[in-house]
Fold these 3 entries.
Entry 1:
Amino acid sequence: MALFETIPLTGLIENGIRTDGRKIDDLRPVSLEVGILPKADGSALINMGKNKILAAVFGPNEVHPRHLAKQNTGIVRCSYRMSTFAVDERKSPAPSRREVELSMIIRQSVEPTIFLEYYPKTMIELYLQVLCADGGTRCACINAASLALADAGIAMKDLVAAVAVGKIDRPDPPTIVLDLSDVEDKEGIGDMPIAMMPRNKEITLLQFDGTLTPDEFKEAYELGLKGINELYEMQKTALYEKYAVIQENIEQNNGKNESEEQSNE
Ligand code: ADP
């Protein structure tokens, strides 16, 4: 997908066009890559606009300390960290309250999709490292996290896809838009991150900051659903691509072995 151009606007939306050239129902350019960290059990990299986030999964492994293990189910631990260089002003390397809260929110958004009952007495660790932040990092993290979990071979009901929908104005009247950028997140008048297991439309995260009328909420939900379905297709493609490469390598190796056997005969 072509990068959207940044066009000079005094407000956030003018004649239906946003500061980065997108229409109201456009996602930012998204790229997803699976299995990029050889030392993790599962991993993914997401670029969503200028967000660049790495997700790594370890496990299921033995729980430490052991008394935290649960007899009948596995547990998920999640760590969201934003790098000091991820934002315009250097961020303190010390973990912030925001990072602690987002770690919990991301964990709660992906946990419902995991068959944790298959992994009693174990833990699955999920690490999200934000290398560059551009608004909507929690949603981008959820998209990458569910891919990394699938890459680790964790039994799941579905992938989880997430996007933020919001309300922006100036000079146009308040408009519901898809996938808020950093400036829209900060200067807009509403922000609603949604995460969902798209197959049965089970919502795993719905937050809201601002005010929406019932009609606006309906419009925002429909727009969010459109974005989530687009992201879901991209997630599935990213997984298929990884396995297509593996399949190609296996076929090449099989072909090589067969020709070696023939030349030995
Ligand atoms: P989300 O990233 O999920 O939208 P927030 O609403 O807390 O979560 O953050 C919005 C955006 O604000 C982030 O994506 C990031 O671009 C920016 N941001 C967050 N924390 C900081 C910080 N400490 N310094 C500068 N910008 C920040």
Note: The chain has one domain: 22-90+97-254.
Entry 2:
Amino acid sequence: MRLLIMGPPGAGKGTQAAFIAEHFSIPAISTGDIFRANVSQGTPLGVEAKKYMDAGEYVPDEVTNRMVRDRIDEPDAERGFLLDGYPRTVAQVEELDGMIAFTGHRLDAVVVLTVDQDEIVQRLLQRAETEGRADDTEEVIRRRQEVYAEQTAPLIDVYRERGILVEVDGLGEVDEVTQRVFAALDTTPES
Ligand code: AMP
């Protein structure tokens, strides 16, 4: 099973990714989490990524693509994976297509969480308090939303045209959203 989860910043991708990945017994791979781990460990990748993350900009494709390629080459991703936060640009879509085709597999579905802008800002400001993320100030949140609209939202049409897009209302309780995702993927948490 090879899945993507997409949605604007604060749509709840990470939370849902964990449940979906557990259900299908595949790793949830979050590029944001990998970058943050590198930042906190002070690796060269982390030092490079931090400059962009703190400004709400995307880390350059070349750096991000290499990191994802290495991660999905790991043994735990052999049976499949759920990517959270990748691809985010058209160039990354093409790169991922190549990576998956190389292994002789295909992308099964792309889950998109749809949410209201105002709700998102509230969620992100709340998360800034609880998690203390440097990229959760109001100014950076606004920039991240712009970058998403410009560079990532167009990917939704790309996957819709391929017939693998699954759109899910991301507003409501975490449980409700999870149930919607499973229903949309035509399965249930028990199956
Ligand atoms: P996230 O936790 O997914 O919101 O990611 C946090 C930050 O990491 C983003 O705002 C970007 O700076 C960077 N990042 C994560 N994934 C990508 C990606 N696929 N391409 C470029 N930058 C990324």
Note: The two ends are 15 Å apart (CA to CA).
Entry 3:
Amino acid sequence: MNIKDKLNSLNIVPNKALGQNFLVDESAIESIISVSDVGGYGVLEIGAGLGALTSELIKPAQKVIAVEIDKNMLDVLNTLKVESEHGEKLSLIHDDILKVDFDYIIKELTFGYTQQFKVVGNLPYYITTPICQKLIKHHAHISQLTLMMQTEAATRVSAKPNSAQYGVLSIASQYIYDIESVLDLSPQSFYPQPDVHSTVITMKKHDYDPEIADRLIKITGICFAMRRKTIQNNLLASGLDRVKASELLENANIPPNARAEALKIEDYIRLVKAWK
Ligand code: SAM
């Protein structure tokens, strides 16, 4: 049964406010599962919907936790648990991904902190940025993310300095992960069709220092607090005194009148190292 008929038969009207644009493009589903590379891993799926990705992820994965906010979707996902021969590998959490107990998810999917897990999701676009911000904070446990988002949001993740899209998310993501755009999809790949184009990105972990990553997220947050102001003014606004701010910038070899968006990741790493 196609998704439209399935929704009709269940008497479900897609909820626009929850970003419910269901993936109906079979070849896109196949590509996403293939690049997700979840074989043998614990997987967090964000916004499982009617289970288009879930039903395929549970085959190779060791365990899948799917978080979904909409009770109607949960009812459908529950049938997958019973009907799929891999259903016992699926755990469902009825919650808002921004409020869910992440410590519990991490413990479950890392099998008691013995390995890292992977994240997959056709994200609800209205909260793409807060979801990504939340995930990046848990970098220590996440080895790969495969995320479908609005194309414009994908450009923010891989943005380079001196562009309006460049910010905390770009810097932290690129410091920790190799980012690749793997698939561009037009609205026709979804039902109902969204107003925007979509992109699937993969983020695969490379060598990095987890402690620096944690501090990088905090310090870039301070530096980008007021985008239009100089880096020095942002440091002062965060409560640093003038002498300490100047010293810090000098030690990191960063001009005080530079703006946050002009600095490269290497510049921020020097700042993190200078800021003891
Ligand atoms: N994975 C399905 C697919 O690819 O067809 C559905 C993707 S749809 C773009 C996004 C899903 O996220 C919807 O099922 C929606 O109900 C769910 N969702 C929206 N807001 C959410 C939230 N705050 N927490 C968890 N799930 C959410």
Note: The pocket of S-adenosylmethionine is lined by residues 18-23, 47-49, 52-53, 67-70, 73, 96-98, 122, 124, 127 (CB under 6 Å).
